[in-house]
Amino acid sequence: MIGTTISHYRITDEIGRGGMGVVYKAEDTKLDRTVALKFFPPHALVTDDDRARFYREARAAAALHHPNIATVFEIDEVPLPESSGIPTSGGISSGSSPRTTPLIAMEYIEGETLTDRIAQGPLALRDIISISTQAAEALKAAHAKDIVHRDIKSGNIMLTNDGVAKVLDFGLAKTAASTKLTQMGSTLGTAAYMSPEQA
């Protein structure tokens, strides 16, 4: 995928991968800026209802504007080259192309995750208070718009080089308009970090 151009994004590096997708660093060739691109796996969006819910909830997350929330620039569904290595819909959803996958283009943040910072050793009390307060302010702003993150954890909090905490990955967000939390028998989020209600 490195060096590939998808839509108007030229992929330059892989940032990370997990159960809910692969994230790449990319250059937006239209606006000349660096972005993070998240591609979603097919099991996350199996049916047409799943895709409709994804777009509805992603649009709501994209409406969030807060200094402690990573900004979402674009939501799209794009064709992928055969050699991409990213799982695609494969025609699972009757309304989708056999070689497309949803993506979210978001703000690229220079820094490290809270998980990486914790791995370096204990944090100073002032840093703990600052990071916790900033993350709480981000969630407060989301809750004010009836959006619940559903996967808040140290790996989804980026710390910039200037000490700003930014909450990432509202791709699992649930809105007040959502018809249901998940499909029967499926799980969204990271089990170890789930609230009792979600678990």
Topology record:
Blueprint: E1 5-6, E2 9-18, E3 21-28, E4 33-39, H1 48-62, E5 72-79, E6 100-107, E7 111-113, H2 114-119, H3 125-144, E8 147-148, E9 157-160, E10 165-167, E11 174-175
Antiparallel strand pairs: 1-2, 2-3, 3-4, 4-6, 5-6, 7-9, 8-11, 9-10
What does this entry look like structurally?
- With about 200 residues, the protein is α+β, with helices and mostly antiparallel strands.
- It is globular and about 50 Å long.
- β3 (about 20-30) and β4 form a beta hairpin.
- The longest helix is centred in the last third of the chain and has 20 residues, at about 125-145.
- Helix content is about 20%, strand content about 30%.
Q: Distance between the terminal alpha carbons, to the nearest Å?
A: 35 Å
Roughly what fraction of the amino acids lie in strands?
Answer: 25-35%
Secondary-structure content class: alpha+beta
Please count the helical segments: 3
Short description:
The chain is an alpha+beta fold.
Tags for this entry?
199 residues; alpha+beta; three-stranded antiparallel sheet; 3 helices; 11 strands; 29% strand; globular
